[in-house]
Amino acid sequence: MLENLLVQGLSGLASASSLFLVASGLTVIFGVTRIVNFAHGSLYMLGAYLAWTLVTSLPRGHLGFWGGVAMAALIVGCVGVLIEVLLLRRIYKAPELFQLLATFGVVLIVQDLALLSWGPQDLLGPRAPGLRGATEILGIRFPLYELFLICVGPVVLALLWLLFNRTRWGTLVRAATADREMVGALGVNQRMLFTTVFFLGSVLAGLGGALQIPRESVNLQMDLAVISEAFVVVVVGGLGSLPGAFLAALLIGELQAFGILIFPRITLVLAFLVMAVVLVIRPHGLLGRAPSTAHGATAIEPPYPPPSPWVRRIGAAALALAVIVPPFLGDYALIVFTEIAIMVLFAASLHFIMGPGGMASFGHAAYFGFGAYGAALLLRHFGAPMEMGLLAAPFAAGLGGFVFGFFCVRLSGVYAAMLTLAFAQIAWSTAFQWVELTGGDNGILGVWPSPWAQSKLAYYYLALTLCAAATLLLRRAIFAPFGYALRAGRDSPLRAEAIGIDGFRIRWFAFVLAAVAAGIAGGLFAYAKGSVFPTYMSISRSVDALLMVLLGGVRTVSGPILGALAYTWLHEQLMRAFDLWRLFLGTIILALVLFFPQGLAGALQRGERRS
Amino acid sequence: MTLEVRDLHKSFGGVRAVSGVSLSVAAGELLALIGPNGAGKSTCFNMLNGQLRPDRGSVRLRGQEITGLAPRRIWRMGVGRTFQITATFASMSVLENVQMALLSHARRLFHIWNPVAKEDPSRALALLDRVGMSAQAARPCGVLAYGDLKRVELAIALANDPALLLMDEPTAGMAPAERVALMELTAHIAREGGIAVLFTEHDMDVVFAHADRLLVLDRGRPIAEGIPSEVRRDPRVREVYLGTGATHGYT
Q1: Which is the CATH superfamily of the domain at B1-70+196-251?
Q2: Which CATH number characterizes residue A562's domain?
Q3: Looking at the DSSP assignment, which residues form a beta bridge with residue B199?
């Protein structure tokens, strides 16, 4: 028994080491550039693929293996520099979420490039020379390579500590982490600093990936799998804190190792549960500090102008078309139209808390999923008809928003976004692992509409009516006292409090409203597809919603509607026309971020003002 | 008395930021809280407006205990505020900024149906008129000149018919002519409406021209209190403000 625990503890340490390698790069990059780099997982994946290629083509032996690993890490470092110079350097001044969107574009592009270069199959790497065997610990065999990995983490931490505390460059990096504007004012070449920091972070990610090849197969899912864990580690440790990342990696690694023994059913959720608990108790992570607000050069948010007659007319015309045209369309087009209507509401619900509320949610899919599961579970366990399901959907989602929102709206910025992500992951893994209730990965099938709504056309009109009504209600709320109070809290929390506005309750209520709206969308989606799966709550669906809002423009009220239309249509067309749709989508996202930073609606607005 | 403060204490770690401050302000009276940097003015101020909880002491507004209440509750009891660095809602127009305070006063913040644009603007416009900003009512707050923002803040602070106005360095960052105008306006409004005003200020011209009484702090302790002419003659105040010359070596 004791031996088992020891071995489990050791493998926990090994995975903690690997986690730390990835997370350290992420946290260093965030500390200096304030960019939440989604593409860090892609760099990790690239490191693994490159190492596989180099190690298998170089001559066997120590030089071949270790040389290959080192070379892979350096190449990834150069790729990181390329990304920084070509893309991120142009958007350091952009809002946080735009940077995030840009790095997500890189994720999509790298995924397809990796698919093109290495193919879809899992690749198995050779084992490390000299570390092939196993050693006996208390009579149980333990792989040597794992022992080696256990040492890598502390060694890297020590090297990084020396680098940051014993070199001039490291001092500058620490200074920039504490106060970027001040370092700039002291005449330090920030560009060089940012680029070199990005190089270092990317090398660490690449190294982390390269060192995985003797342990596990190299595949195309590595990027998103590792980035969500790395986010957890970085946030739990405190953004920008290296020792924090190390501590958090240990905590998460060990918890997962022992969690498997004690609660095998909640392994997926454990890391996110830890993150949620830590953020609720320590809002800036274990060793993190509140960001300095001394030079809080927050961008002034533009006002929401009432829609011009021109915009009103186009909106009315679009709605009229959406009502008149469908009877002449085929089933496929009706399915797409229904989905667009649902996505418009989903995007509008996210925009409600992101735009006027100023809170970013990385986990908005949770409420979409609550709606879908609320309806489907009622059907599965009580045989409830569609009408009741559609009533239950917003209720279930609202309840979810009520509970999760209570914690999320207390935090701000990246931490709030990460807590929403954590809750969404908890919801997702519950749906995934609680098989008796939810059917797990197989989902719940046979979620069909009532007879009167079974034709695609009837269901389309039902979806259109509910979505348009809910979207218009949210829009009304934005221009009503409530929406103003929400914006007041975003613009100046100090002033809002000083005129009696209870920012917490306002944001909480907004969160619940947004969740209810997302729940309606989720319920409609469930009956449209006839089934419900855990993927309805996955990170990628949350990111879809973010993309729609940012694509349309978060700073305008019509933005999310336009964004949902464009994104859903584009997504559908690209998926149909190209195998490499991710590559196209990623490129389009990058182009948008670089050339239309205000989103589509923002660009249109400017065009209108100019004319 | 509108505001009565008894024996306020606050320490940060080992540093006594404020110790033993008592003061009172009557309706229609302007009391200036002055002192060199680090004297404890801001700490004192933040304990009155609810941003800091005092270690000891009591703050009473019209006889009611408000010590340690949240800023928004203190506002509801009739305390208006302006900030040293103006805090307004940049994405809203000047009019809407004032309307927010009125809507909050009427407890209508959770209404989600009727648009703010359809609200009757007459009360908000009247408030803006009092501070001379009604001509700029439609402009977004994000584009105003600093002096104008200060006036908007004053209008916002007056929106709930306060019994007490707390003004933290009301004229900081303004041009000299603007300073005089703003303080004259404030004094006029206060006397006319019977509003007690407590303000901190670095500009001694403003202080001596408009304050009815002064309270001087040094290192967290009150060292003098009285009408301007008395305080001006107080040797301890002169020492604190003008120094003995020792710091610059002119012995």
Answers
A1: P-loop containing nucleotide triphosphate hydrolases (3.40.50.300)
A2: 1.10.3470
A3: B32, B167
